[in-house]
Amino acid sequence: MAFIQILDQVYQKVHRVTAALEFFTTNEWTYTGMNMLRLIEAAEDVYRNRNDENLYGNKQSMNVSGRFPVDMRQLNWSNYFHDYVLGVRRFLLKEDPATIPRAQNQLFLYVIIEFFISKKILIQSIPN
């Protein structure tokens, strides 16, 4: 009976996520980066022609990359996806952050089980 309750909880989560993402997964958009490029160019022009005083009264030049980081090549993708997954868990799945250690332990266990199952299958598939 407990197994059925677990499956029901999993189904409810899947259903909730599917409903929340339906609009974004069933429509199609085309994006261009022209507005962003114009914004970067405009910001570079402003910062190139201006020096600001810092808190101590010293003049310092300002650059766009330091004040307005938009270069995706500079993005730390590992941190981004870590925060993304935490955000999905918290805001979309409505899960308590306190459940993260337990979920990590379960995932580790599943990876180990999958590893041994795949090795056994590989060993059994080797002809004598």
TrEMBL record:
Source organism, top-level taxon: Eukaryota
Pfam hit, one: Sterile
Domain Fatty acyl-CoA reductase C-terminal span(s) in chain numbering: 6-95
Family annotation (InterPro entries): FAR_C
Protein name: Fatty acyl-CoA reductase C-terminal domain-containing protein
Species annotation: Euroglyphus maynei (Mayne's house dust mite)
